[in-house]
Design a protein that fits this description.
The protein has 133 residues and is an alpha/beta fold. It has a domain of 88 residues: 3-Layer(aba) Sandwich (Rossmann fold), CATH 3.40.50. 29% of the residues lie in helices and 14% in strands. It has a three-stranded parallel sheet with strand order 1-2-3, with helices on both faces. The longest helix is centred in the first third of the chain and has 21 residues. The chain is globular.
Length: 133
């Protein structure tokens, strides 16, 4: 704590919306999904303004490629196989897993008391690079 800094009041609540990087980077035939995820980002910002005076923070998380194959029902689960090219698309060198999103949720809910109206992109850096094939 910084000496002389005012003590912050605790949040009255925190809302986390799940959007997607598809709100920014999409492809043909994904119109409805992309529009819905973009709408969630607008909703997040509006709710942050509306609920801020009540000390309720509202943020969004936009996941990228998150592998969920291992988390399906055990009788249907298969170990996902990713190519080197697929892994190299991500500057961190791997595909995301559900724990990556859970960690981001925990950060925003428990450790980001001065953050509201934000969108946290969790995509291993994929969206920050230009890819030309």
């Amino acid at each position: 704590m910084i000496r002389g800094a005012p003590t912050a009041e605790p949040d009255a609540g925190c809302i986390l919306n799940i959007a997607s990087v598809r709100a920014f980077h999409t492809e043909a035939n994904w119109e409805a999904y992309s529009a819905s995820k973009g709408g969630i980002l607008g909703l997040t910002r509006s709710m942050a303004l509306s609920l801020g005076p009540r000390r309720i923070r509202v943020n969004a998380i936009s996941p990228g490629w998150i592998e969920v194959g291992d988390w399906k029902r055990a009788d249907n689960a298969k170990t996902p196989q990713h190519t080197d090219r697929e892994r190299k698309l991500h500057p961190v060198g791997r595909i995301g897993v559900p724990q990556d999103i859970a960690d981001a949720c925990l950060y925003l809910a428990e450790h980001a008391g001065f953050t509201t109206g934000a969108n946290l992109v969790i995509d291993g850096g994929l969206s920050v690079q230009a890819i030309y094939d």
